[in-house]
Specification:
heterotrimer; A: 10 helices; C: 254 residues; alpha/beta; 6-stranded mixed sheet; globular
């Protein structure tokens, strides 16, 4: 009996000692992008109590994969509302999986948006365009939240740039996000290029774009791709660059 | 029953009457004795049917991920890794609890504990031997599962690489290299090694905790039920702890409840790093060592507490 | 248990007798430090039996022991030998010696799962002896063993006593205890009610038995007459009987 009481006392004393250690460790984990879902109350609303507990008990990744496969099936059946709902759950559960954010945005801004535009049941074009813009916004929202959860990785910046470029024709923003992607160490060389291309379409930013492209051109043959040369020539004409400073034809 | 004994003297032994002079000198602590019990426990555990059932189940789960070909390779590898590492995590935790829960009660029921403790074996050594046997079994299972997992992943990677190279045979060298790099990068990630180590340490912690519970539990079932409860509460401990300390909680009773959870339960969430590692989060050396240290610390504490209770136990 | 004061002398076989629940097993467990007494102390060769070192000098065979079924006889002895700090050639020799002593050399590679009750008890005895203890504590060593097996175990115990090993055993089989014990103590409800040398305890001081072979009726009548004349009295005259056990052993001998 005395021993039992002693054990409880020891446990409490050790508990008091370990709580600060565990807190520090948890803080370190969060700083290095682990345990992102733990205090996410949003998660509990989205998954329900049971799913929440399951997610926190070491089944998180598997639950997320299960939902992801369901989303895949919903996509094949073009149930867009369900795809959206499931991807919200998946990304809440696994906010560090780039793939899920990227897929979610792609399904919304590309697949669902195209489907909305081709929706035979909606005869009014204006409403179809409105639906399409809503899907663009959903895709953008996924990518923006994805970036918030993964500011340390470049893929979603690039995906967002692509979305601005292809769906919104917003070259200003596209250039900005490509440029951000280009700042990461080991970023592929095309990020820089794409950023400059997009900028070359921006009214009033031509000089900046020209200098960027020219610098890339001067870096060597590897950068002298057909698009780069075309854009450079376009800017040379537009800015009226003196003949002797222009790049050679072929 | 009260055992009152006035004076029970067995043989005030007269040295001259000794039949055999030989006597091994007794050591207060002996690794050889612990090792004998460890080896024995390991043999005993490998005879357990539940061990093979669980292992086969886990391996099937890992192997079945091979049929995920309808997805892109990134998706496929993501699911394969999630499912495999999830299976490893669940299997090791479950095995740690189920295997440890019956160790001591079984020995007491079979009276083997009497023969062992009637030898010059301190109770601490007995428990250390037992827990070391479980930890060894867990290590072996983890290695076997890791090997199968790596093999499956490697086979899938090779298959995907093969297809990629065939499909891109016309593409320029640079693009092909980039594609191959992308496949390789999404298959293997060296950070999975510390991730798996943490899974193992979590299982060690659970084994030691189960040993502790089993020293005062009356039946195996009781131990397992208590451990299931601890497992779930342990995963919510961090949440309870933060609510308690951030003074969000209203009401004294809620606060006391949260405090009890925070103080008495281990933070098991601290050992679920592998999900984020698969997602590509890099694990720093400092973070790994601190987490591992916490796991080792818990394992040691619970083993010592188990010994403390066991010393007072009337067998 | 209360107020138990007991001393076992070196070199003797001491039997702790009593009905079930009288505290025999508890007493033995206290001696081995498996249970601690609420009050009082026990010593083995002058060492407090709560100390682990005291167990160096004692070997124990619990009642109905189960050893690990998946081990062979040899492996079982090796395991217990290691627990006592033995190893290498010395342990191998000791194992051979003990397997020989308890007659299990042939069954050494068999798993204990296939052993009979008697064989288990004998391997148990070997295990208890592995580290050359000076004292052997046996809890109901013959319980549940058939007469032949039980005879073998009793012979072994006798043999051990000749080797100078002190034996403390508990039993509720009085006939068997009578046969091997030098001294006995009788426990009832946790108290020691009788203790002493066996022959002193059960001898009837004023009676003598005389066993004759080939005596004629006339001789017997003469003896009775002689007895009457010297104030003695013949209480009983009967044919000698063998014991049922001996009859059984004769009949089942192969």
């Amino acid at each position: 009996m005395i021993r039992a009481i002693l054990v409880v006392v020891i446990l409490i004393v050790l508990g008091a000692l370990k709580v600060p250690i565990e807190r520090d460790l948890a803080a370190l984990h969060r700083k290095e992008h682990f345990r992102g879902v733990e205090f996410n109350l949003d998660l509990r609303e989205k998954l329900g109590q049971l799913g929440f507990v399951a997610a926190l008990s070491g089944f998180r990744a598997i639950v997320a994969d299960g939902l992801f496969i369901q989303a895949h099936v919903a996509w094949e059946r073009t149930e867009w509302g369900r795809v959206l709902l499931l991807f919200r759950q998946v990304t809440t559960l696994q906010p560090r999986v780039i793939l899920f954010w990227d897929m979610a945005a792609w399904h919304m801004a590309w697949n669902a948006a195209v489907a909305a535009m081709n929706d035979k049941s909606q005869p009014r074009l204006a409403l179809r365009v409105k639906a399409q813009r809503e899907y663009f916004a959903l895709g953008k929202d996924f990518l923006e939240r994805g970036i918030k959860n993964n500011p340390d990785r470049l893929q979603l910046y690039e995906a967002l740039a692509r979305l601005y470029k292809e769906k919104y024709k917003d070259h200003e923003h596209a250039a900005e996000f490509y440029a951000k992607a280009a700042t990461f160490p080991h970023a592929p060389s095309y990020e820089q290029r794409f950023s400059a291309y997009e900028r070359s379409y921006c009214e009033g930013r031509e000089r900046e774009a020209y200098e960027q492209l020219r610098q890339l051109y001067d870096e060597g043959v590897k950068e002298r791709l057909p698009t780069l040369i075309t854009r450079l020539k376009f800017l040379e004409n537009k800015l009226g660059i003196p003949q002797d400073q222009r790049i050679p034809d072929k | 029953m009260s055992n009152e004994i006035d004076n029970l003297t067995l043989e005030r032994f007269d040295a001259s009457a000794s039949a055999r002079p030989m006597q091994t000198r007794h050591r207060a602590f002996s690794l050889a004795r612990v090792r004998a019990i460890t080896v024995n426990t390991l043999t005993e555990l490998t005879r357990l049917k539940v061990f093979y059932v669980l292992l086969v189940f886990a391996l099937l789960l890992i192997g079945s991920s091979i049929f995920m070909a309808q997805f892109t390779f990134q998706q496929e590898f993501q699911i394969l890794k999630d499912v495999s590492l999830g299976a490893m995590s669940i299997f090791t935790s479950l095995l740690a609890i189920v295997a440890t829960a019956r160790l001591i009660p079984q020995d007491i029921e079979d009276r083997t504990v009497y023969t062992i403790l009637a030898k010059p074996v301190p109770r601490l050594e007995y428990l250390l031997g037992k827990i070391a046997g479980v930890l060894l079994l867990l290590a072996i299972s983890t290695l076997v599962m890791s090997a199968v997992f790596v093999l499956v992943l490697y086979m899938r990677e090779q298959a995907v690489l093969h297809t990629t190279i065939r499909q891109m045979s016309a593409a320029p060298r640079e693009q092909l290299d980039a594609a191959v790099r992308a496949v390789r990068a999404s298959a293997f990630n060296i950070d999975m090694v510390p991730g798996i180590t943490i899974i193992y340490l979590k299982a060690c912690l659970l084994a030691a905790l189960t040993l502790f519970v089993s020293t005062f539990a009356t039946t195996n079932i009781f131990t397992i039920v208590v451990m299931a409860f601890i497992y779930f509460i342990g995963h919510l401990q961090a949440t309870a702890r933060e609510y308690w300390l951030q003074a969000h909680a209203s009401g004294l009773i809620t606060k006391i409840f949260l405090a009890v959870v925070a103080l008495l339960f281990p933070d098991l969430q601290a050992f679920n790093l592998v999900d984020d590692i698969v997602a590509g989060t890099a694990i720093s050396l400092g973070l790994f060592f601190k987490t591992a240290l916490l796991g080792i610390f818990y394992t040691a504490i619970y083993t010592l507490l188990a010994a403390f209770v066991f010393y007072g136990k009337e067998l | 248990m209360r107020d138990l004061d007991l001393r076992v002398e070196p070199g003797e076989v001491f039997g702790l007798l009593g009905p079930n629940g009288s505290g025999k097993s508890t007493t033995l467990k206290i001696i081995l430090g498996l249970v601690s007494p609420t009050r009082g102390r026990t010593e083995i060769f002058g060492r407090d039996s709560r100390l682990v070192e005291s167990r160096v000098a004692v070997g124990f065979l619990p009642e109905n022991p189960y050893f690990y079924k998946y081990l062979t006889g040899e492996e079982t002895l090796r395991f217990f030998g290691r627990l006592c700090g033995l190893g290498g050639a010395r342990l191998r020799e000791r194992i051979n010696e003990l397997l020989d002593l308890v007659g299990l050399t042939k069954a050494r590679k068999q798993r204990l799962g296939t052993y009979s009750k008697g064989m288990l008890q004998r391997i148990g005895l070997a295990q208890a002896l592995i580290h050359h203890p000076k004292l052997l504590v046996l809890d109901e060593p013959t319980a549940g063993v058939d007469p032949a097996g039980s005879r073998e175990i009793r012979d072994l115990i006798r043999d051990l006593r000749h080797r100078g090993i002190t034996v403390l055993l508990s039993s509720h089989l009085l006939a068997q205890a009578q046969e091997i014990c030098d001294r006995v103590g009788i426990l009832a409800d946790g108290a020691l009610v009788r203790e002493g040398r066996l022959e002193e305890l059960i001898a009837i001081e004023n009676q003598t038995e005389l066993v004759l072979e080939n005596a004629s009726g006339t001789l017997l009548n003469e003896i009775e007459g002689l007895a009457a004349r010297s104030n003695a009295r013949v209480i009983e005259r009967r044919k000698s009987t063998t014991t049922l056990e001996r009859l059984f052993l004769e009949a089942t001998k192969k």
